[in-house]
Structure formats: C-alpha cells, structure tokens
Amino acid sequence: MINEEIQKQISKGKMLPLMEEFYTIQGEGFHTGKAAYFIRIGGCDVGCHWCDVKESWNANLHPPTNTDNIVNNVIKYANTVVVTGGEPLMWSLDFITSQLKKNNIRTHIETSGAYQLSGEWDWICLSPKKTKLPLEPIYLKTNELKVIIYNKNDFKFAVEQASKVSDTCELYLQPEWSNKEKMTPLIVDFVMKNPQWKISLQTHKYLNIP
Ligand SMILES: C[S@@+](CC[C@H](N)C(=O)[O-])C[C@H]1O[C@@H](n2cnc3c(N)ncnc32)[C@H](O)[C@@H]1O
Ligand SMILES: Nc1nc2[nH]cc(C(=O)O)c2c(=O)[nH]1
Ligand code: SF4
Ligand SMILES: [Mg+2]
C-alpha cells in the first residue's frame, strides 16, 4: 500500500511510478531515428491484448519516483524526452513537463489519449485504441496519429480516427509486431493507394535496442 504522503505527491505529479528510463533512438513514427531519453511510467488499463509492454500495466509494481530526479537524469543525457508507459496520461504530467521546459528539453508523449491531457508538449503521438477511445480534446492537439494494424478491420478504424485530427497531423499505420508478416503487405498496399498515410515500423526491435 502506498502511504498517504506519497499518494499526495503522485497526485501533484511530484512523484511518478517509474518503470524504466533509457537513452535510445526513437524507433517509431515521425521522429524515427532521432536520439531521445525515454521515461516509461507504469499503469495502464486500456488492455490491448497484443501490448508489447504488459509488465507496465500494474502501477503498484513500479516505485513512486521523485520527478525532480527523473528530470535530472534526462538533462544529463538528451535534449529530447519521450514520455511513454503504460498510459502516461493516467498521471498528472504538468509538473514534469514544466521542469523539462525550464531546462529547454523538447517534450514528446506517446499516448492512447484515453485519459485527460496534461503537460506541455512539443509533440503528441496519439495511438488510439478501440477498447478505450481517446477523449475528444486531444485530437486537434495531436501532431502524429499512429494506428496499430493487427487485422483488416483496423484500416477502417484508422480512417475514422484520421477524420478527427487536424489537417496538419502526420498519419501513420504501424503493423502489430506479432502479426507483421501478415499485415505489412496490406499496409504497403493501403499506403500506396492512400498516400496521405505513411508506414511506421518498430525499427528499435530490428536494431535490438530498447
Ligand atoms: C506501449 S505503448 C505506451 C503508450 C500508450 N499506452 C499508447 O498505447 O500509445 C507505445 C506505443 O507502442 C505501440 N505498441 C504497443 N504494442 C505494440 C505491438 N505489439 N506492435 C506494434 N505497436 C505496439 C502502441 O500502440 C503505442 O503507439
Ligand atoms: N526505441 C524505442 N522507440 C519507441 N517509440 C515508442 C516506444 C514506446 O514504447 O512508447 C518506443 C520504445 O519502447 N523504444
Ligand atoms: S494503451 Fe498502450 S500501454 Fe496500454 S495496453 Fe495498449 S499499447 Fe499497452
Ligand atoms: Mg515500445
């Protein structure tokens, strides 16, 4: 059980249940290939059956960590941070991003959008899920829509979701990793017919880096 004081710090975003932090190369989407410091915050109840980081789901398994310490680590390594999870928007991210911005760090987030948007972001990557749809206000703030393609029905979902984002939003289809042999050829075909979309591969998995 987390004690009351820690709970209070978490609710203010002064502590966050940190699963892991690592300096790597952004493997997916628009910023693929760029160095960035990743912060993975525990906790998610969206329940994607193919999620590649199910160990993140139970927030209680990840120690409440002082946000200031996380920020100090970021500054040592990088000028760009990617906040991911788990579902990072389950937590208040206003404090961490205000500290990051004070240090001129570029702030990126990977989110399903299923919880209220907090934080100040230079780049929002929205990866919507059918099981818990994004809340409306995030769509027009999204810089990059990244829909995971696990089966054929996901193309229709992708088109529906794209109708909600701004005209300048980058559109990506990313094959679900375990079904990529089957779905990648269909994505290639779709993108050639619908060139406003691009394909995103999980390049870090090919590179064997985190
Ligand atoms: C692990 S999630 C964490 C952030 C947030 N919960 C979300 O889903 O956007 C990070 C990214 O990985 C994607 N992802 C997770 N499992 C995947 C898989 N098996 N194949 C391809 N992409 C996957 C998600 O859709 C998301 O874009
Ligand atoms: N290298 C690398 N790039 C990523 N882009 C999004 C990731 C995520 O899990 O949110 C991820 C990740 O886990 N590793
Ligand atoms: S929303 Fe993200 S972290 Fe949560 S289960 Fe789906 S892919 Fe995994
Ligand atoms: Mg990942």
From TrEMBL:
Domain Radical SAM core: 40-113
Broad EC category: lyase
Any one GO molecular function term: S-adenosyl-L-methionine binding
Residues that, per the record, bind [4Fe-4S] cluster: 44, 48, 51
Pathway the protein acts in: Purine metabolism; 7-cyano-7-deazaguanine biosynthesis
Keywords of this entry: 4Fe-4S, Iron, Iron-sulfur, Lyase, Magnesium, Metal-binding, Queuosine biosynthesis, S-adenosyl-L-methionine
Cofactor details (free text): Binds 1 [4Fe-4S] cluster. The cluster is coordinated with 3 cysteines and an exchangeable S-adenosyl-L-methionine.
The protein's Enzyme Commission number: 4.3.99.3
Family annotation (InterPro entries): 7-CO-7-deazaguanine_synth-like, Aldolase_TIM, rSAM, rSAM_sf
A GO biological-process term: tRNA queuosine(34) biosynthetic process
SUPFAM superfamilies: Radical SAM enzymes (SSF102114)
Cofactor: [4Fe-4S] cluster; S-adenosyl-L-methionine; Mg(2+)
Catalytic activity: 6-carboxy-5,6,7,8-tetrahydropterin + H(+) = 7-carboxy-7-carbaguanine + NH4(+)
Family indicated by similarity: Belongs to the radical SAM superfamily. 7-carboxy-7-deazaguanine synthase family.
Subunit note: Homodimer.
Protein function: Catalyzes the complex heterocyclic radical-mediated conversion of 6-carboxy-5,6,7,8-tetrahydropterin (CPH4) to 7-carboxy-7-deazaguanine (CDG), a step common to the biosynthetic pathways of all 7-deazapurine-containing compounds.
PANTHER family: 7-CARBOXY-7-DEAZAGUANINE SYNTHASE
Protein name listed in UniProt: 7-carboxy-7-deazaguanine synthase
